[in-house]
Design brief:
Chain lengths: 369, 354
């Protein structure tokens, strides 16, 4: 996978952090076109650029909270995940990416003060021994796409391996696993791949490696002793979607050992209404809006309920034919949809959290083991 | 009374025609010299020129007023290069009106030597107009288009858009900048408030054939703003899904018959058209709605009892509403309800029973 970064912007307060130096060193040839302190305001800087886009990387010192629970909504069952904010945006350009609506400027940002804040995060985790923290970095960026530059894996793997009650999930669509493979421990680390049908991957996930490449990377991680997760999210209704998703499931069978898969999530495509005009402009040939979307109880657009149930039911059947105990779960769905498509329901967000915590214990053992 | 002779010049510039012009806070541009001169009407350009910001106006009213009380407010002009007549900076409509009235000479203010840059002329005209009237949406588009090459975007967004009553929002600016390129009939409808901003935005993204066809549907079926939104949203989705233009989509027989061969009155045809589009866009939802209606109809609920499904069947469960006069009638209705055997079979609305 080629990362094409053409320029770097370094915030004044960010430039002395070790991660900033590391990125500048590893990104050798990438010109640092601006340091806030030296060249006037950020706004002025942006106005001089032809396109502040995915080719631009900004290194900043993040002022917000690094660890935050996934917001979820009370109308749907949420998995109780904790989001570790390491940056925003990524070099890939998926047509369905929600970040297009969140951030007006779609350049990438790295929070280089992460290492300096790890003690705060450690305190939160360590003082709540009774809870299992399932933490992920892939909410606002791809967890590994920029790893060769940032060295996130080195920093975070050693941090998590010292925690008794936390696991960290790197969620990616890439094959950037070298950093992870070089780390000395596998403890508490889950590497997950976002998968889709081959045609959606090719058409809608611009810049992402092919499914085959992703699964080759996943296989290598399994072989190197890592626990792997899979996410079929967003499931997209497209012509011959059944046949298309089966092709991906066949690839799974070819590449992966299902016994070393901690969980497989299913989530149908959902979006804020404001995303649609943005996507229509940025990806005019997209097929992601072709299905029948209605307004969900959380105000987001989602497929008409029977369509979602049909997709989940189909995926569940096929996945369970492959292996019975995959830790299947639905992302942001109602109790009714759970029951009608999965045959059971965790009932509440707490129930789903407990189910996933059990999977963690099953794969990594109880704290202190 | 109408007079072919110009009246004597009235040396006041009332009705908001200022002798000075505020460009920016703290910076005041003086009109240093505004000579009153009689100019042959024929020497004033007929075309709107680069400073005009008038569109879809009623010349008759203005001409009537000038006919009755004369031209109180003289147009501001500048001399064209090489003495080829005059260009109107402000007062284009007044010039047209007096020309229509057949005046041979018009008393104008010549500001050729006063302000020098196109931006200053433009801003002068803008403030002159702002003092006396509001702009329609097409005029706002014309103004922004004229400012665009002369003023930084940031300034347009932060200063000129609020001045025109528009939000300082770049996508909104983009829509207005494309308004002048729309077909005349579309601009006229937008200026008259018959087309919503959202509709104009959607039209701008279409090819010209599709634009005019969509406009034909909207104007013939007299869609209100809400109907326009539904019509355009569904239409664009369906055309994109089929990989054809909106024009080609509207030419499909199952749709075109609504326009070409209406069997009902206009509001009903409009409703049916939207219904047909809705069915094409949401076939499964439409089918579920139909099945639910049929299921409810087969229940023979007592009078005053209504069974409702949640919006799009998204939330679980249904809602039963019973209207009753008194306790006795409620009891009767409840008993009738309890006796409806098929109630026990009420399940997912979208499931078609054999
Ligand atoms: S990989 Fe994730 S963050 Fe990156 S563009 Fe795709 S959806 Fe957005």
């Amino acid at each position: 996978m080629d990362i094409k970064i053409e320029r770097m912007l370094v915030q004044k307060e960010a430039k002395d952090y070790p991660m900033a130096s590391r990125i500048r060193e590893r990104g050798g040839g990438i010109p640092v076109v601006f340091e806030h302190s030296e060249m006037g305001s950020e706004r002025e800087w942006k106005e001089t650029l032809p396109e502040v886009g995915k080719q631009t990387l900004e290194l900043i010192s993040f002022k917000g909270e690094f660890l935050k629970p996934c917001p979820g909504t009370k109308e749907y069952i949420c998995c109780g995940y904790q989001i570790l904010n390491i940056g925003t945006n990524c070099p890939l350009d998926c047509s369905y990416c929600i970040l297009q609506a969140y951030f007006i400027e779609n350049y990438m940002r790295i929070f280089v003060n992460l290492e300096a804040k790890l003690n705060v995060i450690a305190h939160i985790i360590d003082t709540q021994e009774e809870n299992i923290f399932r933490i992920g970095t892939g909410e606002f960026t791809d967890s590994l796409a920029l790893d060769p530059l940032t060295g996130w894996s080195e920093v975070l793997v050693s941090f998590i391996s010292k925690r008794k009650n936390a696991v960290l999930e790197f969620k990616t669509k890439t094959d950037q696993i070298r950093g992870l493979l070089n780390t000395p421990t596998r403890e508490g680390i889950i590497i997950s791949w976002s998968l889709n049908s081959p045609s959606i991957a090719a058409r809608e996930e611009r810049g992402a490696p092919s499914l085959r490449k992703r699964l080759e990377a996943a296989r290598q991680c399994q072989q190197e002793g890592f626990v792997v997760g899979l996410h079929f999210d967003p499931l997209i209704e497209h012509p011959s979607w059944r046949k298309e998703y089966v092709k991906t499931l066949e690839l799974l069978d070819k590449y992966l050992d299902p016994r070393r898969i901690i969980w497989v999530s299913l989530g149908s495509f959902r979006f804020m209404p404001s995303l649609k005009p943005i996507v229509r402009k940025r990806h005019p040939r997209t097929c992601i809006f072709d299905g029948e979307f209605v307004i969900g109880l959380d105000g987001k657009m989602r497929y008409f309920k029977p369509i979602r149930m049909e997709m989940y039911g189909f995926m569940r059947e096929k996945l369970e034919q492959w292996y019975k105990d995959l830790g299947l779960y639905l992302c942001m769905e109602s109790d009714e949809v759970w029951k009608k498509s999965m045959g059971w329901s965790p009932g509440t967000s707490k129930g789903l959290s407990e189910y996933l915590d059990k999977r963690v214990l099953q794969f990594f053992g109880a704290p202190g083991d | 009374m109408f007079s072919r002779e110009p009246r004597a010049p009235i040396e006041v510039h009332v009705f908001g025609l200022p002798n000075f012009l505020v460009i920016e806070a703290g910076e005041t541009m003086m009109i240093r010299e505004n000579r009153s001169v009689w100019i042959d009407s024929a020497n004033i350009a007929d075309d709107p020129g680069p400073f005009c910001m008038s569109f879809a106006f009623d010349l008759g009213v203005l001409a009537d007023s000038i006919k009755k009380i004369g031209l109180l407010n003289p147009p501001y002009v500048i001399g064209k290069k090489q003495g080829q007549g005059f260009e109107v900076v402000s007062g284009y409509r007044r010039v047209l009106a007096v020309k229509a009235l057949g005046w041979e000479k018009v008393l104008c203010k010549d500001i050729s030597n006063s302000v020098t840059s196109p931006l200053e002329y433009l801003v002068f005209n803008l403030y002159d107009n702002l003092a006396t009237r509001t702009f329609n949406d097409v005029e706002k588009g014309m103004i922004l288009c004229r400012l665009d090459p002369l003023v930084p975007r940031k300034e347009i967004l932060e200063e000129y858009m609020p001045l025109l009553g528009l939000p300082s929002h770049e996508p909104t600016l983009e829509v207005y900048l494309r308004v002048p390129d729309l077909a005349l009939e579309i601009k006229e409808a937008f200026a008259r408030g018959q087309l919503s901003f959202q509709s104009v935005r959607a039209l701008e993204d279409m090819d010209s054939l599709s634009q005019s066809q969509v406009f034909k549907w909207i104007s013939e079926l007299k869609f209100n703003f809400n109907q326009q939104r539904q019509f355009l949203e569904i239409l664009v989705d369906l055309a994109l899904k089929d990989g054809i233009s909106v024009f080609e989509f509207l030419a499909k027989e199952e749709l075109s018959r609504y326009l070409e061969d209406p069997i009902e009155n206009r509001p009903q045809t409009a409703k049916r058209t939207l219904q047909a589009l809705h069915e094409l866009r949401y076939p499964r939802l439409t089918r579920a709605e139909r099945i639910f209606r049929e299921k409810v109809a087969n229940l023979n609920l007592p009078e005053g009892a209504i069974l409702k499904a949640p919006a799009y069947f998204e939330a679980p469960g249904y809602c039963l509403e019973v209207r009753f006069r008194d306790g006795k009638s409620l009891k009767r209705k409840m008993e009738a309800l309890l006796n409806i055997k098929q109630l026990a079979n009420l399940d997912d609305a979208w499931v078609e029973k054999e």
